[in-house]
Amino acid sequence: MNRTRILSLLSEKREFVTYCLIGLSGVGLDLLAFTTLITVFSVHHQAANAIAYSFGTTNNFFLNLRFNFRNRDRLVSRFLSFQAVGVLGLVTSAGALWILVDQMRVNPILSKLGTLFLVVLLQYNLNRLVSFRKRGAN
């Protein structure tokens, strides 16, 4: 694939690419908090997941609001919607962690990394369609 085609594809998918880049900062914050909570403070992996996930989700909301979707209306409603989507992602992540860590005995940190792709796709689509939907869009 040549450079022009790659740039064209990235331009077409700017919103998703930006969402993923912003998501990386949230994932970094999430993983840092998760790892710190379980290794330094011996917090159970499910509790650590919930706490760390909320840090990453809040980070991502404000960065997406500012740099990606750029919707400034209905801020409280959008934040609550984004958090609700985040809870769905958390439930998905917690379920996957339960299977991977508690049932299959996979390392918690590797398991957390393994759940990210599914959760990112789920949350991007829901946030695009619900949380950051343009006013008047169906």
Description:
The chain has 138 residues and is mainly α. The chain has one domain. 81% of the residues lie in helices and 0% in strands. The protein has helices at residues 3-12, 14-39, 45-67, 75-103, 108-131. α2 runs antiparallel to α3 (45-67), α3 packs antiparallel against α4 (75-103) and α4 (75-103) packs antiparallel against α5. The radius of gyration is 16 Å and the shape is globular. The N and C termini lie far apart (35 Å). The mean pLDDT is 86.
Beta-strand residue percentage: under 5%
Largest sheet: none
Please bin the fraction of helical residues: over 70%
Which series of helices and strands comes N to C? HHHHH
> What does the oligomeric state look like here?
single chain
From the spread of the alpha carbons, the general shape counts as globular
Low-confidence stretches are: none
Rg measurement, Å: 16 Å
- Summarize model confidence as the mean pLDDT: 86
Number of helices: 5
Number of domains: 1
End-to-end distance, in Å?
35 Å
Secondary structure class reads mainly alpha
- Number of β-strand runs: 0
